[in-house]
Amino acid sequence: MWRNCVRLARRGLGRGAVLRPDPTVSRCGVSKDYALPNSSWSQGMMDLYSRFLEMCKDGTWKRIPSYSNSVDHIPGKAFWGVHSKYQPQLWQTINMDTEGVGFEYAMFLNPSEKRMVCLFQPGPYLEGPSGFAHGGSTATIIDSTIGSCATFVAGRVMTANLSINYRNPIPLGSVVLVDSKVDQVEGRKVFLSCHVRSIDGQTLHAEATALFIRLDSTKSLQQQMSCQ
Ligand SMILES: CCCCCCCCCCCCCCCC(=O)SCCNC(=O)CCNC(=O)[C@H](O)C(C)(C)COP(=O)(O)OP(=O)(O)OC[C@H]1O[C@@H](n2cnc3c(N)ncnc32)[C@H](O)[C@@H]1OP(=O)(O)O
């Protein structure tokens, strides 16, 4: 399957094909959960996913679907994306319409530990150095995982600072675990840290720290930004 994805990706790129959002989702607004197993997932990704699903059974962990923002999972919090006309497209941009070529991922939240993990399998469209994930895609998945974690703790947040040390390149098609947690909350500031490791835990691919700032919950993002 992985070889097929690479071939498909290369063919598509060769013809200058443009990936489009899934029309069934963007046109009628029906949400599709992209953070679910598909045929592009490797055995390692499937095994890890099953392990976390198992841990969801006693309520320790909670699976975060792709189609709804993590804010949606916090009781009493408003849906962050409701003010944005672009919200329905966000997930397709991230996951693309062809399985396996972009960001394949699944997120799980541990509320009591204020921890969010992301199982991440980068596809060929994310290539930076030959055969490895582009650093920007690693930054994206880190920011999204840490951001979801901060969102769970503080509600509507934005990244103010993200500092990443890249330790070892991530091979395309491999599976890594992005493990983030909240370290401290000071007023509107949420400090977090994150490690990206291979699934056997032997390779540290990246480590990061981040500062997120909580936004005014009574304003839409657009109102918030136009006030500055
Ligand atoms: C791929 C698979 C996806 C999976 C799917 C999951 C989806 C899950 C989605 C949810 C997760 C979203 C994750 C993405 C999140 C972004 O990508 S956000 C986009 C990137 N970030 C931005 O564009 C932010 C741009 N900056 C800003 O808008 C504003 O500077 C901010 C950050 C909102 C802060 O502005 P403000 O509210 O006016 O706050 P301000 O008064 O300036 O600062 C408050 C305090 O923070 C401090 N501060 C502010 N900035 C900084 C800084 N950079 N460094 C240090 N201190 C700072 C200030 O000094 C101040 O401190 P005190 O004086 O109170 O001690």
From TrEMBL:
Topological category with respect to the lipid bilayer: Peripheral membrane protein
EC number(s) from the headed UniProt entry: 3.1.2.2
Protein origin, superkingdom: Eukaryota
GO function terms (MF aspect): hydrolase activity
GO cellular component: mitochondrial inner membrane; mitochondrial intermembrane space; ruffle membrane
Subcellular location: Cell projection, Ruffle membrane; Cytoplasm; Mitochondrion inner membrane; Mitochondrion intermembrane space
GO biological process terms, semicolon-separated: apoptotic process; fatty acid metabolic process
Keyword hit for Cytoplasm: yes
Predominant localisation class: membrane
Reaction(s) the record says it catalyses: (9Z)-octadecenoyl-CoA + H2O = (9Z)-octadecenoate + CoA + H(+); hexadecanoyl-CoA + H2O = hexadecanoate + CoA + H(+); dodecanoyl-CoA + H2O = dodecanoate + CoA + H(+); decanoyl-CoA + H2O = decanoate + CoA + H(+)
Similarity annotation: Belongs to the THEM4/THEM5 thioesterase family.
Descriptive protein name: Acyl-coenzyme A thioesterase THEM4
